[in-house]
Amino acid sequence: MKEKMTRWFRYTAEDVKAAQAELDELAEQGWELAELGIFTASFRHAEQPRRCWVEPARWTSIRRKDEQARTDYLALCEEAGWNLLDEAGGLFYFQAQPDTDPAPIQTDGSLEWEDVLKKKPVESGLHLFLSGDLLGGLVRRTVFPGSAPGVGDVFLQWGYAGSEPPAALAGG
């Protein structure tokens, strides 16, 4: 049997449950997470694979207050039997300390998605607005060629006009 395995492994904060499920499944098959890469993860075969726990990264800023909260949080996790193995894609990857069977870090279902829902709506909403407005502008130009321009039309015109900036096109 192979002793090491590398596989595609790229998850973001919205995919925390999928990452956890994949790690649990691999552990059942005797594979222990060894290392995370940019888009891959390395696993090693183990008789008793150490469990992993995946959490959305709670503190990603470098502000002193956040650094202290992060340090305190990681210290509590370590006391509970979990070591931070890596941080990638907005997720903390914890691994159980050798010869322990610690309780899951997060067991409150109402809190599980709190960080994800706090961090992503602005980004997702902005992407949705821009893509919807651009698509709406494209449809408006195609179906109703003489209609009044919208915000998306400025970007569409810029794309058609070549190198002219949007401000030059906004006036007419």
What do these coordinates show?
The chain is of the alpha+beta class and 172 residues long. The chain contains 6 helices and 6 strands. It has helices at 16-28, 64-79, 109-112, 114-143, 151-161, 166-170, and strands at residues 4-8, 31-36, 40-45, 52-56, 82-88, 91-96. The longest helix has 30 residues, at 114-143. The radius of gyration is 23 Å and the shape is extended. The model is unreliable at 158-163 (pLDDT under 50).
Tell me briefly what this model is.
The chain is of the alpha+beta class and 172 residues long. It is 46% helix and 20% strand.
Question: Keywords, please?
Answer:
single chain; three-stranded antiparallel sheet; 172 residues; alpha+beta
Q: Portion of residues in helices?
A: 40-55%
The proportion of strand residues reads 15-25%
What's the shape?
A: extended
Low-confidence stretches: 158-163
Element-level helix/strand string: EHEEEHEEHHHH
Per DSSP E runs of 2 or more residues, the count of β-strands stands at: 6
CA distance, first residue to last residue: 69 Å
Number of helical stretches of at least 4 residues:
6
Which assembly state applies to the chains in this document? single chain
Overall structural class, as computed from helix and strand content, comes to alpha+beta
The strands making up the biggest β-sheet line up spatially as 1-3-2
The major sheet is characterized as: 3 strands, antiparallel
Using the CA coordinates, give the radius of gyration. 23 Å
